[in-house]
Structure formats: C-alpha cells, structure tokens
Design brief:
- The protein has about 675 residues and is of the alpha/beta class.
- The protein folds into four domains: about 45 residues, no CATH class; about 170 residues, Substrate Binding Domain Of Dnak, Chain:A, Domain 2 (Up-down Bundle); about 150 residues, Rossmann fold, CATH 3.40.50; about 220 residues, Rossmann fold (3-Layer(aba) Sandwich).
- It is built from 27 helices and 18 strands.
- The strands form five sheets. It has a six-stranded parallel sheet with strand order 8-7-6-9-10-11, with helices on both faces. It has a six-stranded parallel sheet with strand order 15-14-13-16-17-18, with helices on both faces.
- Helix 25 links the parallel strand 17 and strand 18.
- The protein is globular.
- The N and C termini lie far apart (about 75 Å).
C-alpha cells in the first residue's frame, strides 16, 4: 500500500529533514518494517497525560481530572480534585517532580557506575582502565580539598597519582549517600549563584537523598503544596547537574582523556559494505571505550578477516556515540530516531547497547535481519528476541568482554543478506570541552575566556545559547534543532551543543569552521574565523551538559558580564526533548539562573498555578525560568529578545566603535 493512501504510516518527507532518514524510512516501509515514525502516526497522545492531570499515585485511581478548558483564562473556578481531594496543582506537580527525580536518577546512576569503576581502577582492580589525564585528576582533587602534594624530607613533592585517585574515588562515591551538609561541587558555581541557593534552601545534601525525598513527598497524602514540591525538585536537580552528572564527566575525562578538537563523520553512510559493522548505543562509555580499544588489536582485525570481512567499523548511536566521537573521532551512525533504521540497512552485525534511550523495538527489528542485539548492563536487559544476546559487562574483565562482543559480531558477518546503506555522511569538528574552549581562545600559556567576554561586550557575539536535548517523534526530526540554531547563529549567538541536538547539527553541516562564513552573522563569523572554530561547538553527550555549566561559570569569572549565571546574556534550549532526563537537566539549568526554552511542552498545562510558577515565579527566585514555543524560529527570536534584555541590564547594548591597534598600542596593553 502506498504512503499516500495508508494513514497508518508516516510520510517520510514530513517527519524528517535528513535525507538518509527519509530514504531508509521509505525503504523500511517497503519491506513492511514498522518504525517509531509510523507508530507516532498510529498512536495519538493522551490529552490527560499531556496536561499532567492523570494521577496514578494510589490504587483508588487512576484519577483523571477534567481538562483545563475554561480554567486557563480564569473564567471559572478550578474546583477539580481527585478521589482523595488532591487538586490539579498537586497532581500536576507530583507528576512533574517525579519526572525530575527519574531524570536525575538516570544520569546520576550513570555517574555512580563510572565512579565505582574509577575506584576499582584506582585500587588496580580494573586493569584495563588507566589515568589518561593526570592534570585533570589533580584539578578534580582540589574540588574535594584532597591534597595533591606531600612533604618528604621537608620539601613538598607531588603525591602519587594512584593515591590521589583512591582519595578522589572514595570522596566522590560518598556524595551519593551523603545525608548532611552540601555537595562538594556546588562551590564550583559563581559565589552569587551559590548565595541564591543558600537563600532559598536548595543546596542538595546528597544525590540519592534528594531523589528519595521526592519519592516520599509525592506518595499519597504527603506534600500538597505545589511551591514546596517544586522547591524539592529544584534541590534534586542541582544534585544532578552540579553533582552526579558533573562528577561523571570529570571522572570519564580522567580515565578516557579530556576531549580536544578532533574530526569525525556522521550519518548512516558511515556503515561499511565489506567490514563487520558494530554499533555501540546508549550513554555509558565504560563498555564502548573498551570496544574501541579492542577493535584496534591486530588479533581482532585478523579474526574479522578470518570470517571474510575486511576488518571492523565501530560506530556510535545516541550519546555513547558522542563519547567515542569526541575522544577518538569514531564515526556516528545516527541519533535516537535513527536506531531502528540502522538495523534496516541489513549491514549491522551487532547493535551493542548499554543504558538509556534504547528502543525495545530493536529486538523485533533485529529479528527481521541478521543483527545481533547485544545487551551489556545488568539493569538494562531485553526479555525477548531470537537475536538478543546478553554479554554482561564486568569492569574487572572489561577488555575480554569487549573482545567477546567483537567475536560475536564477526561470527555473524557471513549471515548477511541484502544490504541497503544510504550514501549520506557529513564531516564535523567536535570535542570542545571547557578546557578546549579555553585553550582555543587563549592558547597554551594564556588559556582564558576573556577573549570570549570581550567579544560579547563589544557586540561581535550577541550571546551564548546551549542548544541540547533529544529527538522526539512528535516533532520533525532534526528540523527543530537546525532551524533554531541557524536563526541564532545568523544573529551572532554562539552555540554550545550536546546529545542528539549536536548530531542534528553535524548532519546539517554546522559543525565545521567553514559553516561560520555560510550561516553566521558578521560578528560571530569574524570571531570564528579568527579563532578557527565552528559557530556551533560540540561539547559531548547529554551527560556533558555539565560542561555548559562550567563554561558559563568561566565566563562569569572572566569578568565584565555580571556576578552570577543569571546575569549572563545566555540561554538554554531543548527544542525536541522527549525524556525525563531532559526535565532533570532543564530544571537544574533554571535553578542555576538560566532561561530555558523548550519546543515540546511540559505536562503542566493542567495547572495554571504550576505553569505560572515554573514560567514566571522561578525567575524571581533563581534568575532562570522555563518557556515554551513550538516554532523553532519564533523560539530563537524569543531567546534573542531575552539575550538583548540581559545585554541592556549589563549596559553593553550600545554599539561600540571598533579601534584598530598598532604595535605601540599593543605594547602599552601588555605593559599594563
């Protein structure tokens, strides 16, 4: 049945702007393979769930309150209550902060796993991992007040790196179960931002404690004040952004190396016709790092050749892809919405998954082809599928497990059938960690964010926008990210990006220095050309949104743009978010003082009070707030308006005369 006459399948050109996705979706439909795009057409959204007014907290329900029509404008009183008397505001807010808790738990539990492996490495129990960035290890030790020197014969000498690593690992791991005080990393924020948190009592005491408290508060018959509930959601989110996620990013950098600019390729065209294709998918780099290490071993290459292949191609999907990209330049096969389509190519010998954003449908789609669907984590198994295999990860046997996975993939190569790989690939420059940005701006000996601040103050750069987040099958694939970002950079806003948003930029050609001359406004283009950077800086995985926080903090410390994060001409955006992680991330940015624009609505419309609190009152408390606009270009213009208001408040909204300096002028500056 053709697409035009079948209302139960997606029209490829209407659901994505990516040509590889359009081609593969049409091919999947021709083979009768259903994907998420088709399911989005068949399954309509629940109006009650969309408004957040369905309560399943106790067995007296579920209680579905009447929809909000007529109440939004205050034309009638809001007398809606559940069986227990819970108001719309209580129900909506419980649902919202439970999503915050789940999102924070996912990223922070990822961080716990990284920390446990880090500690095993430090104790020399996980021999396949090592310390690749000793400088960062010593920097991280300082955040925990761990000494990096010791006295020997009356002289201070550097401590052994392994001893420092043990102390760091133990101090970091304790942050999850800490019951009193505050998280160590909070002091990394600007002092004025810390003062806001102190004033409003939202400094997290321990990562797990704040998540558990949300679950208690939202139990039937506990907290019934929407403001108090959101208060706890804010405290919990900070425990993720300035705790679990930030610590995971740092410890991954120590073990695997801090990213610096490198090149890579993206899209389904990176798959090979004559090599064993292994896709690593998910978010945790503990497994994928070892697979990347193992695949370069001569013995593994020889094993692939013994099966008739020319070697291996290891490519990534979702944020595991970003992890191996920014550190090794390994190719990206695709993003969240492309995972099924990768299998449909018929060229994937093994889809190796860890945690988060893994569609259960992969098991079914893999059964239509020869692909082995390999799960690796004890918390992320799949219950069915004749092609599903579980190879449980063990940090003590990490390299051997990686070899086992590669052998399974190579053994599967002779089972290939028809192969249909689209040709699309794009080159990109990635790996802009906070340290890398500082280096690019100031060089080896003068690394500094001052040049960035100077160009924001003089108006060449209008502001900074972090555009992050997932894909969502309810909005056009890639288009919402690309359209927003093109509008922003055309108006001289420099972009920091992570996750699937970064992948959309890569496929659209926005992650190369050459893109500045094509898409950026004159001021931003001039800066990018001078420094040699793209107008959109790929900072890593969605876990690495913490890098955006540290980069923003560096901007505050560089001076001239306010005292706290809320003062900056900056904003955040997630135009295509879909997961609970995104809500946890958005909430920690808002509570840190950042204006956050989303293109998919939060499930809060069922309570005008909660909506007003998140979109207005939060700004008075913390300096940041949520906003919603589905049109990506209009959303970009609202962001620009916000940035211009911040520039006016800082007194940098007036055009400044450009002065060309000769050598004598430069000598005077250097002498001063």
């Amino acid at each position: 049945m053709s697409e035009s006459t079948n209302p139960k399948v997606a029209v490829p050109e209407q659901v994505s702007i990516d040509t590889a996705t359009i081609k593969m979706l049409r091919y999947a439909q021709s083979k009768g393979v259903e994907t998420i795009f088709d399911r989005a057409v068949k399954m309509k959204q629940c109006n009650f769930g969309t408004e957040g007014i369905c309560c399943r907290i106790c067995a007296q329900g579920p209680c579905r309150l009447p929809l909000t029509k007529g109440i939004k404008d205050g034309t009638e009183p809001d007398n809606r209550v559940g069986l227990c008397g819970a108001t719309a505001s209580t129900i909506v807010d419980r649902n919202f902060i439970r999503q915050v808790a789940a999102g924070c738990a996912s990223h922070s539990d990822h961080g716990r796993g990284v920390t446990e492996t880090f500690l095993a490495m430090a104790h020399r129990e996980a021999h396949d991992y090592t310390i690749k960035d000793e400088i960062k290890l010593r920097e991280v030790a300082g955040f925990y007040d761990i000494p990096v020197t010791e006295e020997k014969d009356g002289v201070q000498v550097p401590r052994d790196k392994w001893a420092i690593a043990v102390d760091v690992g133990e101090r970091a791991l304790a942050q999850w179960g800490q019951q009193r005080g505050e998280l160590a990393y909070l002091k990394r924020a600007p002092k004025a931002t810390q003062a806001r948190w102190e004033k409003h009592g939202v400094k997290p005491r321990g990562i797990d404690r704040e998540i558990v408290e949300i679950m208690h508060r939202t139990h039937m018959g506990v907290d019934q004040d929407y403001r108090n509930l959101i208060h706890q959601g804010s405290r919990c989110s900070l425990g993720n952004g300035w705790g679990g996620s930030m610590m995971a990013t740092d410890l991954q950098d120590v073990m695997f190396g801090t990213p610096y600019p490198t090149t890579g390729k993206i899209n389904l065209g990176v798959l090979s016709r004559d090599k064993v294709n292994v896709i690593v998918h998910g978010h945790d780099p503990l497994v994928s790092e070892m697979i990347v290490c193992a695949v370069h071993l001569p013995e593994m290459q020889e094993y692939a050749r013994s099966k008739g292949a020319a070697g291996f191609v290891v490519s990534g999907m979702c944020c595991t892809a970003n992890e191996i990209l920014v550190r090794h330049g390994m190719p990206i096969a695709g993003d969240y919405l492309q995972q099924e389509l990768a299998v449909v190519t018929g060229a994937v010998e093994a889809m190796v998954v860890d945690v988060q954003c893994i569609m259960e449908s992969l098991a079914r789609v893999s059964e239509c082809y020869h692909t082995k669907f390999i799960t690796t984590m004890p918390i992320a198994k799949c219950a069915y599928g004749k092609n599903t295999v579980h190879v449980e990860f063990d940090e003590h046997l990490a390299l051997e497990k990686a070899k086992e996975i590669l052998r399974i993939a190579a053994d599967n190569f002779p089972n290939r059938g028809e192969v249909h790989i689209p040709s699309e690939t794009n080159r990109m420059v990635v790996g802009f960690s906070t340290e890398a940005i500082k280096y690019h701006l100031g060089g080896t000996f003068r690394g500094s964010f001052v040049p960035l601040n100077d160009n924001i103050i003089n108006g060449r750069i209008r502001g900074i926008v972090g555009v992050v987040g997932c894909n969502n099958a309810r909005v056009e694939h890639d288009e919402v990210h690309v359209a927003m970002i093109k509008e922003l950079i055309a108006n001289d806003c420099i972009i920091l990006t992570t996750g699937c948003s970064a992948m959309a930029c890569g496929k659209a050609g926005l992650l190369t220095p050459e893109a500045a001359a094509v898409y950026a406004g004159p001021g931003l283009a001039e800066v990018c050309e001078a420094v040699g950077i793209p107008p959109v800086l790929h900072m890593g995985s969605c876990l690495d949104n913490s890098r955006i926080l540290t980069a923003a903090t560096e901007v505050v410390h560089a001076g001239g743009l306010g005292k706290e994060l809320a003062d900056l001409p900056a904003a955040g955006a997630a135009p295509g978010w879909m997961s609970e992680k995104a809500i946890g991330i958005g909430q920690y940015f808002v509570t840190s003082g950042v204006y956050v624009m989303i293109g998919v609505p939060l499930a809060i419309a069922g309570s005008p009070e909660v909506k007003r609190h998140l979109e207005h009152d939060m700004e008075e408390l913390y300096g940041g707030k949520w906003d919603y606009e589905p049109d990506p270009v209009l959303a970009a213009r609202k962001i620009i308006q916000h940035i211009d208001e911040k520039r006016t408040a800082l007194g940098i909204d007036k055009a400044r005369e450009r002065v060309l300096l000769d050598m004598s002028d430069r000598r005077e500056i250097e002498a001063a």
